[in-house]
Amino acid sequence: MPKPPPASPPHPRERSFDAVLCDLDGVIRFYDMTEVTRLEQAAGLPPGSTAAVGYAPENDLPLLLGRITRREWAASIVRGLTPRVPLHRAQALAHAFSHAGFRADEPVVDLLRRVRGHCPLVLVTNAPVWLDEDLAALGLDGLADHVVNSSRVGIAKPDHRIYEIAAERAGAVPGRCLFVDDRQENVDAAAALGMTGVHFRGVGDLRTALAPVLTQRRRPRPVRPPGTRSASSRPAAGRTC
């Protein structure tokens, strides 16, 4: 009896995920509300009163869909506060809130920078039209392969379409995407599309979720035609840091 042909060697282990989709605010970026809190105390308002007005859907959603400017958003906050405080205090609070400083969580950023060596990273965020300026201020304008900003695409989480846009830009099917967000409703919406959702509560959650990604084989570097240079090696005339 002839011997069966030798078994084919096993294929290399597939990547655990083909893309990582990650939220920005509450995961990577955090706002400093010290000045807002000080002004609220001076006005006799409970902490968080300004945020409650600024993030109310009727004020926040038009901003996140790119329909109003920062000035118009601040004006809506003033209107929401003036029944409770004098106009000058409402204006000061609205300005402080709409121009609040922010920082990036460096341990989270470090983890995400490592992701790009293994699979595409896409930021999926409900953010205003000036997001690119904010990312540049943080030194994060090159953090991700793509940024899907609600105010640019006209769709906000948890609408399923923004997740589909992100997966398409990553070149991955939803079922091969890892999605990270600090809001459970956004995680649930991603999971409904077949994505693996992670509810972020701290860097430990992210480290655990990314462990399979960071141990999978590295993505191949793109091959450039002979004689071409990478973007980083080109003259940076007019570039500012």
Automatic annotation (TrEMBL):
InterPro entries, A to Z = HAD-like_sf, HAD-SF_hydro_IA, HAD_sf
Q: Any transmembrane segments, and where?
A: none
Pfam families given in the database record: Hydrolase
Q: Does the keyword Hydrolase apply?
A: yes
Q: Which GO terms describe its molecular function?
A: hydrolase activity
Region annotated Disordered sits at: 214-241
* Entry keywords, A to Z: Hydrolase
Superkingdom assignment: Bacteria
User: What Gene3D superfamilies does its record include?
Assistant: HAD superfamily/HAD-like (3.40.50.1000)
Sorted alphabetically, which SUPFAM superfamilies does this protein's record hold? HAD-like
**Sorted alphabetically, which PANTHER family does this protein's record hold?**
ALPHA-D-GLUCOSE 1-PHOSPHATE PHOSPHATASE, FLAVIN MONONUCLEOTIDE HYDROLASE 1, CHLOROPLATIC
* Protein name as annotated: Hydrolase
Organism expressing this protein natively:
Streptomyces chattanoogensis
Name the lineage. Bacteria, Bacillati, Actinomycetota, Actinomycetes, Kitasatosporales
